[in-house]
Amino acid sequence: MEPLFTTVDWAKGSNIYEVNIRQYTHEGTFEAFGKHLPRLRDMGVDILWLMPITPISKKERLGTLGSYYACSSYVGINPEFGTLSDFKVLVDYAHELDFKIIIDWVANHTGWDHHWTKDNPAYYKTDSQGNFTERNGWKDVIDLDYDNAEMREEMINSMRFWVKEFNIDGFRCDMAHLVPLTFWSEARKQCDAIKPLFWLAECEDIAYHDVYDVSYAWAWMHGTEHFMKGKKGLSETYNILHGYSQYPAQALKLFFTSNHDENSWNGTEYEKFGNAAKCFAVFTCTWSKGVPLIYSGQESPSKKRLEFFNKDEIIWNKPTQLHDFYKSLLALHKRDAIAIGETFILPTNNDCVMAFLRRHNQEVVLVLINYGSDNKIHIKVDHDWLDGEFTNIFSGLGYNFKKGETFELMAYDYIVYSK
């Protein structure tokens, strides 16, 4: 069956960088963040996902500054960050540098003093006593009622506002599965009528790919955590990846080692993965049907959990120590062998080692990753695709492979060659 919507052409081989404006700089403003754009462009970032930019409710606010995800208006700007004009300047500058901009959209709930609570209280769900309510245990927000057709239309009008007035390029939709798919279908139809957009869903319900281009790879993330804790081997991870391969042909998965939720609540990638953190980053940029995500500060690398409700500035290494590491991976990710190629999984006889080949026409990529602490692991690769001149994407050194080669991996090592 033909998909209801078509992914924009520029999304092929793309990557996403999540921007935490509050914590990115000392100023915590759009203007201050804009100074980082040339660096991110050089690193190879394509899509900038801005965490919610709308004003934050004061009633029931958590911490000193509150959660971005408890908005008081869908068509205003958080004054922490600047003004609507400042946001327009940032979007225009990003477009000049050939970035795409997507904004975080929180459609399931608002903060307690969103102007709709007074202007249109019927837009909200209520309990048996007629009080605003929330079903997920989040104390600083209240749920919207998607049985209300007028609310749905106002929500879509608010989304259209950002496309029409600021020329954004898409949406990352928070907890998308908590909102009816029928709403998202109508929202995409109306918003895409202004310009074709990119749609990312924070959910892992395959049905939502009827509307969305990309969905989260939460199961993969949990599988990697099980693996690192010694609960399961790589077989569980492979089973999850096989499940993803059964998704609709156009569907893509978002792979990440960190994001704002993971960093603040579950720990940094170094807390979760230890010395294997970079190994998993290599995977996110090389596996099939994947869109890699980098969170603010990972390229530094920033090794602290960022406060969610308070000011907690990222500590930046200068120069950023992993800039070239990510630059090499993001450049590789654009190659057809990665973006649209087929995958062949190689045997390793080691439950901590993942090995695979990616190919499209004459392009071939070899990926070997040791997630474990064992040294001097020898991997025999005997495959017709491993033939010809290959280049190590990190060192730039070239090698002439003859179908059968043996590679040695040290602890937490990764080897990536491309042809």
Structure description:
By secondary structure, the chain is an alpha/beta fold. The protein folds into two domains: 9-334, TIM Barrel (Alpha-Beta Barrel); 343-418, Golgi alpha-mannosidase II (Immunoglobulin-like, Sandwich), CATH 2.60.40.1180. The chain is built from 14 helices and 16 strands. It has an eight-stranded parallel beta barrel. Helix 4 links the parallel strand 2 and strand 3 (100-105). The longest helix has 18 residues, at 149-166.
Structural descriptors:
TIM Barrel; 2 domains; six-stranded antiparallel β-sheet; Immunoglobulin-like; eight-stranded parallel β-barrel
Name the strands of the widest sheet in spatial order. 1-2-3-6-7-8-9-10
**Overall geometric form:** globular
Task: Output the helix-strand order.
Answer: EHHHEHEEHEHEHEEHHEHHHEHHEEEEEE
Gap between N and C termini: 35 Å
Strand residues, percent: 15-25%
What is the typical, i.e. mean, pLDDT?
96
What structural class do you assign from the helix and strand content? alpha/beta
Report the CATH C-level class of the largest domain: Alpha Beta
Poorly predicted segments: none
Main beta sheet: 8 strands, parallel, barrel
